[in-house]
Amino acid sequence: MPSRNSIDWNAPPKLPATHYTRGDIYRDEAIFEDEQERIFKKVWRLACHESEVASPGDFRTLEYAGTPLVVVRGQDGVIRTFVNVCSHRGARIVHQPAGNMRHMVCFFHLWTYDLTGSCTSIPRPEAYEKQNLNKDKLGLREVRTGRKCGLVFVNLDDACESLDDYIGDALEAFENVLTENDLEVFTYQHATIDANWKEWQETNLDLYHEYMHVALRKTQIDPKAMNQRELKVYPKGHIRGGGSGYSANYDGYSGWAKREDSKALRGLTASDFRFTHIFPCSSMNARGTIMRISTFTPLNAHQTRIEWRGMSPRSDSEDDWAMRTEHYNQYWGPFGRNVPEDLMAAELCEWNFGPAAARYQIIAREEGMRGQDDGFLRAFYQRWGELMGRSASGEGDTP
Ligand code: FES
Ligand SMILES: [Fe+2]
After folding, report:
1. Contact criterion met (CB below 8 Å) for 153 and 46
2. What structural domains and CATH numbers belong to the chain?
């Protein structure tokens, strides 16, 4: 196979426009800003699990599309989300990542808000009377909040469709797991990586890179079962993998014990492996005895913050909790045989797409939406293109 000169290297691949991406989508600041407006400020996004805000006053803060948010359960039991910005002079109100509060008091001038977002107290309010300003007009900005199967989603667009309409059937592989196990968060990790958010998401959608993970080579890849693996694509860019052809034998990796069916989460067998991605940045993964929900936040064109939550049944004994912690960390822990390798792969792409040394990505594998077909990547970029009003391959752009 001959090497290529610069003209050939820089030319678009001779492939359908759906089968490759162009490098500027990973580094162009204008495209990044457009993504914030057209995608992240419009879609439903996983905020937390409802067990994190189990009691009245429990809260969880997060940042999303440049907007600080606080998710809080009110005294009435309702989970609401507010922009974490004081109506007075814009100060951040709630600072801790999580906790319990009776009301929200701004540090700067002590304006106070209740858990429904109403402004309840302003020190020396009479000085605002001339301007006809009073606390009734100064509540916090509330944003849309939805719950499904114990997952709390938020959407910054007041006019967005309902969460049910957005997700459709895409959570079907996880409904039993999420609703029958009385789950709570038993481990939480986050990382900020030097990679564009799409480079990270590609590691979640690309099935072909299984060979990169030694643990997957040893426990999961069965060439004979490849054509049993179905790739399911839902409307709005959501995808699902799992079921027949995806099973794993954990004792195939030296030092790892077999996972027992009796310890599997309800709705799963010990060897079950399944995953669902809700476009663009919310994910569920299950591996028999363990389950993870995750999400990420693009910080700029070259940095992405990722959050992972491990879920376990509230009723776990100490032994079961230790078993689940071990199984979780084998794969998804900071020194596990999965996540660190995926982080590295995303950064390796960023190293080359960031300075434009790499020009195109090829997403052209076709196996009839089975095996290691690139159909998930193409579905993702099709949805990205619909929302962005442009093609990820640059087709139609003026060069
Ligand atoms: S900025 Fe919050 S009370 Fe003044
Ligand atoms: Fe991976």
Report:
1. yes
2. 47-160 (2.102.10.10), 173-388 (3.90.380.10)
